[in-house]
Predict the 3D structure of the following.
Amino acid sequence: MSTTEQTQQVIPTGTWNADTVHSRVAFEVPYAVATFTGEVPKFEATLEDGKLTGVAQISSIQVKEEGLEGHLLSPEFFDAERHPEVTFTSREIRRTGDRCA
């Protein structure tokens, strides 16, 4: 007779602040035959009792496509002048090995 042991890896409790040097807020947008990627390097984030919340300064957005940053900051997309920050809150955090997703 065999027994299958299941272990649940727990997200750390307490309050943790993001290490902004080794962490990042990034995005991917599929478009036609390619995927645009970028990041917002100026941000703050906190993991508190399993819930991730944060704010990113949208004016710091960086993308590889030359000229796209200005378009993303325009009213057609993020409208950075009227909405300088993007906030985020996790709905779920899953831990796989040493990584959380």
